[in-house]
Amino acid sequence: MIEVNQIGDGDPLEFEVMVREASGESRHHVTMSKETYERVIAGRYTPEGWLDAAFRFLLDREPKESILGRFDVTVISRYFPEFERELPRYLSQS
Fold first, then answer.
1. At what angle do helices 47-59 and 83-92 cross, to 10 degrees?
2. What's the CA gap between 61 and 13, in Å, rounded?
3. Which helix (H) or strand (E) holds 8?
4. How far apart are CA 87 and CA 66, in angstroms?
């Protein structure tokens, strides 16, 4: 289960993401600039829904323990170049 909570509304926006599985849980502090929010999401999704899809994408590729504890959403594409291409599939499953 993925739980996304916005904890800051400055710039960047700040979120706490908790991933719970039978093997335990992990917590992640994630930031997203307002510019990134406008460019990538542009009102089509909530930031929470978008991050939920992003974490499902990540969890299909690595265990929760391997996901950085603190990061900005823009780094996902650096580790996984296919992220932006694959994300619409995850968003459609929301």
1. 110
2. 25
3. strand 2-8
4. 19
Q: Between β-strands 70-72 and 24-32, what pairing exists: parallel, antiparallel or unpaired? A: parallel
Do residues 75 and 29 make contact, with C-beta atoms less than 8 angstroms apart? no
The 10 Å Cβ neighbour count of residue 14 is 15
Query: Is 80:61 a contact under the CB 8 Å cutoff?
Result: yes
**Interatomic CA distance for residues 13 and 22, integer angstroms:** 30
Long-range (24+ apart) CB contacts under 8 A made by 45-48 are: 45/91, 45/94, 47/4, 47/6, 47/13, 47/15, 48/4, 48/5, 48/6, 48/15
* pLDDT tens per residue across all 94 residues of the chain: 999 999 999 999 999 999 999 989 999 999 999 898 888 877 788 999 999 999 999 999 999 999 999 999 999 999 999 998 999 999 998 6
